[in-house]
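Lecture 7, part B: from sequences to assemblies.

Below are the input chains for today's worked example.
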Amino acid sequence: MSLLLQNVQKSYLEPSGSRLPVLDIERYELPQGQQAALVGSSGGGKTTLLNVVSGILAPDSGEVVIDGRDIAKLHEVVRDRFRASRIGFVFQTFNLLPAFTALENVLLGMSFSGRKVDKEFAVFLLERVGLQHRLDHLPQRMSVGEQQRVSVARSLANKPVLLLADEPTANVDPANQELILNLIRDTCRENNVTLLMVTHAMEVANAFDRIDRLHDFNRLAPKPQEAGS
Amino acid sequence: MNILTIARKGLKQRKLASALTAFSIALGTMLMVAVIVLAGAVDGVFNQQAIGYNLIVGAKGSALQLVMSTVYRIQPPIANLPLMYLEQLREDPRVEVAIPMAFGDYTKPEHGSFPIVGTTTEYFLNEYAPKKTFQIEDQPGSRQLTKLYDAVIGSQVAIKNDWQVGDTFSIVHGSADSDKIHDETFEIVAVLQQTGTPNDRSVFLNLEAVYILDGHQKPIDEVETRLRDFYGDDADRLTRGLWQLDQLRKERAAGEAEGDPERGYGIDTPEAMKEVTAVLVNMRSDFDAVRFQSQLKSTSKAMAVNPIRPIKQLMTQFVGPTKDLLMVLIAMIILVSGVSIFVSIYNSMSDRKKEIGIMRALGAQRNSVFAIILAESSVLCVGGGLLGWIAGHTVAVVASPWISAWTGLLLNPWYVNPYEFVLFPVLLVLGVLVGFLPAMTAYRTNVADALQG
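Predicted structure of the full complex, as structure tokens:
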């Protein structure tokens, strides 16, 4: 099992002092190598879920098991190291560091894992996403599609077991959407990486064999008709 | 990719702000290094054994002025002593060496206004500083001061004017800015090798030549008055001196009567008419030197000065405190520069919140982002300091000829003061201090919030 959430609860402290519950998940699992699209209404807790899964946020309670380890119980330092080495992240807004070239952005992803930085592998990944001619280019010199491809390469730099993608095609032009989507899915498949992709777009979700609706397993997520009312 | 590389990238991203803050540190450091180097060099020049004699004997007056004029040649002489006094000194069994010096003239301004020193060849045969003897450049025709109008020049004089053995020059009377040029022309017979002392920027003439230059001989009546004052308690010498003056009066009168007004003004001028500005003395023992000094104190004739003591007093009372004050002011400039680094980095933190969030999301630990920000401020402080250190020494290199020309001090711009080794650890600490608060901000960054931003 690559990802298992069990009895996970997460709430935020509001300025008034009260707590706003966002996640209440009894069980959610995603086997190794499987790919799932996660859809849900805005404000339903999708981003919070990704943050909890990635270890950026600690749940109030419950288990977040990735590759056999409950990261909710790890000390923050260990959790950071675990995230760097086992979890890849593709953001909606790419989140490349502007002062770093495409290659350096990928190398940066490797730097925090505690493993040896493998420049050859970083170049290989960029070649895999079709950016062999852009290695030394800064993000601002690249198109949004190219930037997202760098982001995909970076997310795979540490050979993760789980890749989390937060609407990776939302900011990309239609011509590049399918390219990016296929790239993420193909590279995950090639490397047996479990993929959990959050998306709003049903045409993106429909490309997946497995579509998970947040309100189906998060008791606190509004159902689509509720969200509209 | 290590912390320093990541920090360097961060600084590169904010090129202008980084450059300006590093520049402000560099500027402060440059000033500090320039002051350290120049003050240290001045200190070195004055504290070194710039003279190989344990006493300077001169007319009564300021001890400091006697040293500054005789050793460093950057102040006018106090007054003169009769040349007869040199003979008296040499007769003293405690005196090992006594070398006359007469100065007050300069090379022409276009030739650098170097001081002229009338002396004897003995000066070059003695050590100019402890265990250091004069060496001359290997140039054809080099010789000692044998002829009347021979001149030996210091290395700086030769470099400044591109003078060699065989070249000739004339000198100005009285002061460096005087417009009275002596008619006589002097021929260079030797160029001294660099000594690192004021001898390098001095021109040495035959002492006898100094006496026959126009304007150098005082009226006989004035000399008589001075002799009476000086040798009031030494009837033998006074009588001999007055007799010489009487003979000179008669000779000059005869010369005028016979239509030869030059008679009595030439090289055969009697000893009583001649004066020296100072006498460099080596006593046979330090004890003799101390006794001789105190002995002269009780008379009104002359004074003997240990060349080191007045300089040490000057350094302690004036140069040292002035340097310390400057250092405090410059340290405050550097501190203000440090604050500007703090402001710059701290202000950039809100813009960099997302960047830090990304790094944290990629697995960077809190300690790592903390270290990155500290590394940035440290690189700015130490990097700026390094630039300032180089610039400070460059300033010293550029300024040293100008300072030498202005003050007469020979400075070594590559002189590295031990204080400079403390500078970089201090700048590193400053970098850590000013980077601490921004680094804590980075440390506390809420990753989820930062990524949303």
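Note for the exam: Residues 6 and 372 of chain B are 7 Å apart (CA to CA). Keep this in mind when comparing with the next example.
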